């Protein structure tokens, strides 16, 4: 069963979510990939304002393809998240509460997620066309010169994702590895005959 969440995402809702939970996200989320993250962190380091209010919001790591006529957005599948790892702790420290991407995160990012009471979701890679149907509105709000990597404000409805790292630091990828290793040990001991 999926849990429905609305943005902005607040701490009390984040505390209810656990690694492995399936969610449907509705509301406003923002897009940014590594080039935009670098610019955001440069603004933070200069003490300047960001082009959007990051507090309690979610960033989706995506560089969508151009929209076909009559569509809001093109294919919008997740980008590999580790590309943003060097920038993520600084964004979490100033109030970012959620990220959507694909793949594992570094230990430093997981510690920052725990420290800041945030959460990391995974969107399903390979489902870019399906994900784009959940995006009801798309507007470039910063760094238009970056093309598909510009920062966009998206309005989403029932955007499907899975909690990968919860605010307690539980990591679905580690949980999956442990279960796999336990099953291998069981089989190697002659179990399952």
N→C terminal distance = 32 Å
Using the 3D structure, state the CATH architecture.
Answer: Alpha-Beta Barrel
**H/E element string?**
EHEHEHEHEHEEH
Radius of gyration over all CA atoms, rounded? 17 Å
- CATH superfamily heading: Fe-S hydro-lyase, tartrate dehydratase beta-type, catalytic domain
The helix content, as a percent range, equals 25-40%
Order of strands side by side in the largest beta sheet? Answer: 2-3-4-5-7
* Structure classification: alpha/beta
The rough form would be described as globular
Q: Give the amount of beta strand, in percent.
A: 15-25%
Within the CATH hierarchy, at the fold level, what is the topology?
Answer: fumarase
The average pLDDT is 91
Number of helices: 6
Please report the total strand number as a whole number: 7
Uncertain residue segments: none
Organism: Clostridium acetireducens DSM 10703
EC number: 4.2.1.2
GO molecular function: fumarate hydratase activity
Domain Fe-S hydro-lyase tartrate dehydratase beta-type catalytic: 6-174
Give an overview of the whole structure.
This protein is α/β, with parallel strands linked by helices and 193 residues long. The protein has a single domain (3-188), classed as Alpha-Beta Barrel (fumarase). Helix content is 30%, strand content 25%. The chain has helices at residues 11-16, 34-46, 88-93, 107-116, 128-132, 172-188; strands spanning 3-6, 22-31, 58-60, 98-101, 119-122, 135-142, 151-165. It has a five-stranded mixed barrel with strand order 2-3-4-5-7. The chain is globular. Pfam families: Fumerase_C. Belongs to the class-I fumarase family.
């Amino acid at each position: 069963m999926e849990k429905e969440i609305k943005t902005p995402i607040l701490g009390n809702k984040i505390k209810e979510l656990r690694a492995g939970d399936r969610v449907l996200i509705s509301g406003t989320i923002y897009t940014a990939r590594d080039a935009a993250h670098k610019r955001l962190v440069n603004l933070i380091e200069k003490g300047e304002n960001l082009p959007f209010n990051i507090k309690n919001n979610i960033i989706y790591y995506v560089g969508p393809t151009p929209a076909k006529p009559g569509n809001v957005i093109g294919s919008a599948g997740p980008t590999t998240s580790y590309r943003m790892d060097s920038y993520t702790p600084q964004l979490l420290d100033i109030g970012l509460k959620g990220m959507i991407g694909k793949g594992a995160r570094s230990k430093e990012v997981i510690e920052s997620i725990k420290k800041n009471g945030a959460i990391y979701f995974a969107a399903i890679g390979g489902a870019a066309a399906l994900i784009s149907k959940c995006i009801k509105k798309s507007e470039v709000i910063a760094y238009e010169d970056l093309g598909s990597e510009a920062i966009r404000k998206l309005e989403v409805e029932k955007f499907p994702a899975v909690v990968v790292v919860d605010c307690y630091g539980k990591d679905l990828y580690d949980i999956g590895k442990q279960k796999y290793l336990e099953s291998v040990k069981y089989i190697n001991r002659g179990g399952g005959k």
